[in-house]
C-alpha cells in the first residue's frame, strides 16, 4: 500500500511574533511539538507520531504560547525530548515518503536541525530520504474557502465533522487530523492529490 505523511509543528511564540516574523531579539522558532500521520491512499490513518521537544534558547514557554496551544511548561519539562532526538525520530518516521505540511513547516525543521548541529548534536536521520511539500497553495486553489484559515480549522470551513481525536486547534496532532480530513474529503469528492504525493 502506498502511503504519505502529513505533519504539523508547534514552535515557540510570543504575542506579536507572527506579525513581526519572529524578528525580535531572542525570538527563535524552536519546535515544542511535532505531530505526524502516515496516511494511506484514501487518506486513512495508518500510523501516528507525536513528540514534545524541549526548547534550548527559550526553555521557558511564554504564557501566549501555552494559551494558544494548551501545552504547558510542566508537560515539556516532564515529557520533552532533546531536539536532536525528536528531529531524528521524526525524520526516520518520514524516510522514503512524501511529507506534506499546510505551510512552510519544513523551513522551521531546517532551522531547528541547523541549531542542533551547531550545538554539536547529531541527528540520526536526515532530510534527504523524504520529499517535503507545502500543500497549502494547492489546497487553497482547489478549495478557496480554506485560504484564510489555519490548518486546525480546515475541517470546520469544509463542513466536516470535528476530528474525533484529543486536542484542539494548535495541537500538532489534532492539526494533522484536520489536514487529513480535508485531504480525504477532497479525494472522496473526486479531486486528485497533487503529483508526487505517493
What order do the helices and strands come in, and which of them pair?
Layout: E1 3-11, E2 31-40, E3 45-52, H1 63-69, H2 73-79, H3 83-94, E4 98-101, H4 105-118, E5 131-134, H5 136-142, H6 154-157, H7 172-188
Parallel strand pairs: 1-4, 4-5
Antiparallel strand pairs: 1-2, 2-3
Characterization of the model:
It is a single chain. With 198 residues, the protein is an alpha/beta fold. The chain has a single domain (3-188), classed as Nucleotidyltransferase, domain 5 (2-Layer Sandwich), CATH 3.30.420.10. It is 34% helix and 18% strand. It contains 7 helices and 5 strands; from the N terminus they run βββαααβαβααα. The protein has a 5-stranded mixed beta sheet with strand order 3-2-1-4-5, sandwiched between helices.
The helicity comes to 25-40%
N-to-C SSE series? Answer: EEEHHHEHEHHH
Number of structural domains: 1
Name the average pLDDT. 95
Q: Uncertain runs with pLDDT below 50, 5 residues or more?
A: none
Which structural category fits the helices and strands?
Answer: alpha/beta
- Indicate the CATH class: Alpha Beta
Instruction: Tell me the name of the CATH homologous superfamily.
Output: Ribonuclease H-like superfamily/Ribonuclease H
Give the CA-based shape: globular
- Kindly provide the radius of gyration, computed on alpha-carbon positions and rounded to a whole number of angstroms: 16 Å
CA-to-CA gap between the ends? 10 Å
Counting DSSP H or I runs of 4 or more residues, the number of helices is 7
Strand arrangement in the largest pleated sheet: 3-2-1-4-5
CATH architecture level-2 label = 2-Layer Sandwich
Range of strand content: 15-25%
Extended strand count: 5
Look up the CATH topology. Answer: Nucleotidyltransferase, domain 5
Largest sheet: 5 strands, mixed
Amino acid at each position: 500500500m502506498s502511503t504519505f505523511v502529513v505533519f504539523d509543528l508547534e514552535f515557540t511564540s510570543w504575542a506579536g511574533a507572527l506579525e513581526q516574523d519572529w524578528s525580535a531579539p531572542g525570538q527563535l522558532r524552536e519546535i515544542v511539538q511535532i505531530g505526524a500521520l502516515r496516511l494511506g491512499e484514501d487518506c486513512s490513518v495508518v500510523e501516528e507520531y507525536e513528540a514534545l521537544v524541549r526548547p534550548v534558547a527559550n526553555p521557558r514557554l511564554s504564557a501566549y504560547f501555552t494559551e494558544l496551544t494548551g501545552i504547558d511548561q510542566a508537560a515539556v519539562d516532564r515529557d520533552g525530548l532533546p531536539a536532536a532526538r525528536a528531529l531524528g525520530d521524526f525524520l526516520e518516521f518520514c524516510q522514503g515518503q512524501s511529507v506534506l505540511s499546510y505551510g512552510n513547516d519544513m523551513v522551521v525543521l531546517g532551522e531547528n536541525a541547523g541549531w542542533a548541529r551547531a550545538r554539536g548534536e547529531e541527528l540520526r536521520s536526515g532530510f534527504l530520504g523524504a520529499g517535503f511539500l507545502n500543500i497549502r497553495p494547492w489546497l487553497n486553489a482547489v478549495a478557496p474557502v480554506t485560504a484564510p484559515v489555519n490548518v486546525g480549522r480546515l475541517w470546520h470551513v469544509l463542513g466536516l465533522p470535528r476530528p474525533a481525536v484529543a486536542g484542539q486547534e494548535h495541537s500538532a496532532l489534532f492539526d494533522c487530523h484536520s489536514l487529513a480530513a480535508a485531504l480525504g474529503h477532497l479525494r472522496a469528492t473526486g479531486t486528485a492529490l497533487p503529483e508526487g504525493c505517493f
